[in-house]
Write a structure and sequence with these properties.
Elements (H helix, E strand, L loop, with lengths): L6 E6 L11 E7 L5 H8 L18 E5 L5 E5 L10 H17 L3 E9 L6 H13 L3 E6 L6 H14 L6 E6 L8 H13 L1
Parallel strand pairs: 2-4, 2-5, 5-6, 6-7
Antiparallel strand pairs: 1-3, 3-4
The structure holds guanosine-5'-diphosphate (GDP).
Guanosine-5'-diphosphate (GDP) binds next to α1.
InterPro entries: G_ENGB_dom (IPR030393), GTP-bd (IPR006073), GTP-bd_ribosome_bio_YsxC (IPR019987), P-loop_NTPase (IPR027417)
Keywords: Cell cycle, Cell division, GTP-binding, Magnesium, Metal-binding, Nucleotide-binding, Septation
Cofactor: Mg(2+)
């Protein structure tokens, strides 16, 4: 499986616009600005695959990227948590994401992207609990590790690990940086194992 060959397939704003529900998918979730688009771009070595600079409300869609193996896909879920979005848009977001997460049978795992300096927000916790409840393997990317000194980053990872100890759904906790490429190989290996299983 090669991530470098990822191609944009389709944006879906409703479940019935998603590609057929077979094969294997891994979805990326995260709070807005956590670094999700940058992580996807880094993993696929494609600086433009997931748009990085975004306008609130313009990334409500679920984006699908195909890989070089038939019916293997990466999925970019809408970022959560712009303070300025309207109530309606928040409802919309929850609906889309809820439908996707609850109904998608080919979903093999979830990658939760969080800023290593602001880990485990309420949104992140909600996602962890959801994965635990639904037995969905979870990979946590603690990104922007380049923003911390090595010792601080290590302490932050230990702290995250401690806070997630009771959650057996967490299969991978990876220190990551789109800037320094730390953790990219480990992340690709874990994604490959999920998608090829
Ligand atoms: P998204 O909203 O979660 O998709 O976040 P983006 O990928 O658009 O990133 C938000 C901001 O954080 C942008 O200004 C990025 O350049 C920056 N950023 C993302 N990842 C990293 C990283 O690993 N290191 C550093 N230093 N900045 C990052």
């Amino acid at each position: 499986l090669s991530f470098n060959s990822a191609r944009f397939m389709v944006s879906a704003s409703r479940l019935d616009e998603c590609p057929p529900d077979y094969g294997a998918e891994v979805a990326f979730a995260g709070r807005s600005n956590a670094g999700k688009s940058s992580a996807i771009n880094t993993i696929t070595a494609n600086g433009k695959l997931a748009r990085t600079s975004k306008t609130p409300g313009r990334t409500r869609l679920i984006n699908f990227f195909s890989l070089n193996r038939e019916n293997c896909r990466l999925v970019d879920l809408p970022g959560y948590g712009y303070a300025k979005v309207s109530r309606d848009m928040k409802d919309d977001w929850q609906q889309h994401l809820g439908h996707y997460l609850n109904d998608r049978r080919c979903l093999r795992g979830l990658v939760l992207v969080m800023d290593i300096r602001h880990p485990l927000t309420d949104f992140d916790r909600m996602m962890v609990e959801w994965c635990q409840h639904n037995n969905l393997p979870l990979m946590i990317l603690a990104t922007k590790s380049d923003k911390l000194k090595f010792g601080q980053a290590k302490t932050a990872m230990q702290d995250i690990g401690r806070r997630l100890k009771e959650f057996s759904c967490v299969h991978h906790l990876i220190m990551f940086s789109a800037t320094s490429k730390q953790g990219v190989d480990e992340c690709r290996a874990a994604l490959t194992a999920w998608l090829e299983a």
